[in-house]
Design goal:
This protein is α/β, with parallel strands linked by helices. Helices cover about 45% and strands about 20% of the residues. The two termini are about 20 Å apart. It comes from Mesorhizobium erdmanii. Keywords: Methyltransferase, Transferase. InterPro entries: Methyltransf_25 (IPR041698), SAM-dependent_MTases_sf (IPR029063).
Amino acid sequence: MSIDAAAKFDPSRAAEYETQSRIALAGYDACHELAACMLAATLGAGSSARILVAGAGGTAREVISVARLEPSWSFVAVDPSKPMLDLAMSRIAAAGLTERTEPVLGVVADLPEDQPFEAATLIGVLHHLPGHEAKQTILGDIAARLKTDAPLILAGNHHAYASQPLMMAAWAQRWRMHGATPAEIEIKLGKILQAADPPQSEAAVFALLAAAGFKKPLRFFSSLFWGAWIAFRA
């Protein structure tokens, strides 16, 4: 995530993020659990690995889910939003994972390129980055810090929201299912339409990955606009 994109994740947004993310993404925990399983299946159960967690702020589910499965793995958690990184590190501390997790307040480009990681995650970030260039930049920065053939877990919304009115309507019903009033739903959907810029399709996601130096993308999870993929550093 860029510094500019991080500005909207102020202390008030950080405080509500954990609840809101689980409503907005049906299957939130399942996606993170499957991401952990995909990494373990790729790198080998019981192996040692150092994992780059880009855009780590918030619930810290990337770290917690993977760490529960693989006790020998360590993490570098990067986020440009201090409130969001603080929230993530509080969840990591509560899970007893502080010694295995290095927090970095900043962006992926701040990390050295001569200490490559065995794997990386970028979950719930790409659709918050405005424009093609910002998306391409963060994927390229991650690729530059991975070993050859290292896996990347990429997850986030794709499709132009307004192009899928039925899924938008279903999204509204999910908010209603969790107690939101019609007025609140209208506000939430309005914010989504104005504040996010997802890739326009899965093909667009694959093109971004290829341009950044990743190969063999494979989708392993989907929920309305959300998709999750694994790809490998070429």
